[in-house]
Amino acid sequence: MANLLENLNIPPCIWFEGEARRNSTVSILSGLLFFMGWWMIIDAASVYPGTVAAGYHMCGVVGTLSLVMVNSVTNAQVRGDSYDAGCLGSRGARIWLFLGFVMGFASVIAACWILFADFVGAKEASQWPGVALFMQNALIFVSSLVFKFGRTEDTY
């Protein structure tokens, strides 16, 4: 079965060379996911005023801060190839990256907690603000992952 597609020759696509534009495509996709996340929570807060408490927005702020923390460290700094200065060197970059991921996971978990604790069980209120809050944090986290691991170069 492994030899079935071995001799299949597919001609290269001349009009689209994705590898040369990979970083810009990943950046656009990441920005679009980030925008969609914030747009959902802004929509929920404007359509259902008073249902999204001010404290609920902290999940999105922490998720955005996580995105900045995760993507401010290059892969070369984490590997220790290009960064050996500072008081911690590559170990400090790894700690910074770890704290960024912890904050991202925490914001997604907190949004999921708020969704099920305050919106799923409530019969009189709409569930869309809770779903929007969860989707905001999930999209911000996915945007962070796409931007961090989708790029080919370590240059920003």
TrEMBL record:
Superkingdom to which the source organism belongs: Eukaryota
Pfam families to which the protein is assigned, alphabetical: UPF0220
The UniProt entry lists membrane topology as:
Multi-pass membrane protein
Q: Give the record's keywords alphabetically.
A: Membrane, Transmembrane, Transmembrane helix
Where does this protein reside within or beyond the cell?
Membrane
Cellular component terms (Gene Ontology): membrane
Q: Which PANTHER family match?
A: SMALL MEMBRANE PROTEIN-RELATED
Protein known as:
Transmembrane protein 50B
Which organism does this record belong to? Agrilus planipennis
Gene expressing this chain: LOC108741377
